[in-house]
Write a structure and sequence with these properties.
Blueprint: H1 2-36, H2 39-70, H3 74-107, H4 117-139, H5 142-172, H6 177-209, H7 213-222
Length: about 220
């Protein structure tokens, strides 16, 4: 039974890596769509959201089988519980990549008059955070998980930079207002992707140590 259990845990890791790769590709397509106004990339990212939803259901089913049939304890129980939380965040990242792509499809019909470099940087960093958070889970790497958590500050800083840039663009030419608002929404979606990657990393820490950073912070605040 233990051999079967470990085989299923290995399958769980493989499926999480696969889902992570799908999400990473969806972010990349959404990024290309919004930067290059590429309608084909946008359509692919939107279509990929259904595949991400499907693999989430498959992983959830495997996790529930492991919990009900194998009755794991201690570390293995934390690992499976963390995986269930992580796939929820990954599914939401897929949703947000699709949302970015929907905006990109709309913008393809408009003159490409606004360039916001910080959005490209946000896209690059959030994609890296997602990849590293999954790697941290598979490799049981606390340092890598902590790096992802720390990188969220950089995403927040870039979002503020985009907000500032967009305000300046609108002040210079109010006719660009609609496109500027769309780009602000894109930046907000990337910020949320960064938040979800951070959540994944925090669940990695929990799966290894039994401690969840955010929950402990909430307890400390409520106890003051």
């Amino acid at each position: 039974m233990r051999n079967v259990f470990h085989e299923q845990l290995s399958k769980l890791n493989d499926m999480l890596v696969e889902m992570g790769a799908m999400v990473e590709k969806s972010i990349a397509r959404a990024t290309q769509a919004i930067i290059s106004y590429d309608r084909k990339k946008a359509k692919k990212a939107i279509k990929a959201d259904k595949d991400i939803d499907q693999i989430e259901k498959e992983i959830e089913s495997l996790c529930l089988q492991l919990l009900l049939r194998q009755q794991p304890v201690a570390r293995d129980l934390r690992l499976i519980s963390a995986a269930l939380k992580m796939i929820t965040d990954m599914e939401r990242i897929g949703d947000q990549a699709a949302d970015i792509s929907e905006i990109a499809r709309f913008l393809t019909d408009l003159p490409h008059v606004i360039e916001v470099k910080s959005i490209s940087l946000m896209a690059e960093l959030t994609s890296k955070m997602v990849t590293e958070s999954i790697d941290a889970f598979v490799k049981r790497d606390l340092d890598l998980a902590q790096k992802v958590i720390n990188d969220d500050d950089a995403i927040d800083d870039l979002f503020l930079k985009v907000k500032k840039d967009v305000i300046e663009i609108v002040q210079k030419d109010p006719s660009n207002g609609e496109q500027a608002i769309d780009l602000m929404m894109v930046a907000k979606y990337f910020e949320r992707i960064g938040d979800h990657a951070t959540n994944i990393a925090e669940w990695v820490v929990f799966s290894i140590t039994g401690r969840h950073i955010e929950y402990e912070a909430d307890i400390e605040v409520s106890g003051e």
